[in-house]
Amino acid sequence: MAPRKRREPGAEATENSLPVADKIARLLALMVVRDMETKQAALKLDSVGFSAHDISLLLGVNSNYVHKAKHEEKGGAKKKRAKKAAS
Fold it and tell me: Distance between CA 46 and CA 8 in Å, rounded?
């Protein structure tokens, strides 16, 4: 018989719920981004380590929205530099 896996303290979860630490992290994330625009909130949550799937669940958008926001942010910086160089 295989030994049972031990769970970390505070990581109790039922089949249909998240571990307690994940619930707390999501709640804090929602509190931080509640007054932000969706795009800025997606970028902020991405910068602190949430996956695109987690962000889409938190903000009610699809994961492609998160990827697009990251791409536009990255491309926007290049466009600004190009405009300054042309001036």
Answer: 25
Confirm if 49 and 22 have CB atoms less than 8 A apart.
no
Q: Specify the amino acid at residue 8.
A: E
Q: Which pTM value belongs to this model?
A: 0.64
Domains of the chain, residue spans: 20-86
Structure-token pair, residue 27: 């709640």
Backbone angles phi, psi at 62, to 5 degrees: -95, 165
What is the tens place of the pLDDT at every residue in 9-27? 555 555 567 788 888 988 9
Find the radius of gyration of the CA atoms of the chain.
Answer: 18
Cα–Cα distance, 59 to 57 (Å, whole number): 6
Q: What gap in Å lies between CA 26 and CA 79, rounded to an integer?
A: 34
Residue with tokens 């926001």: 69
Retrieve residue 44's tokens.
Answer: 């902020």
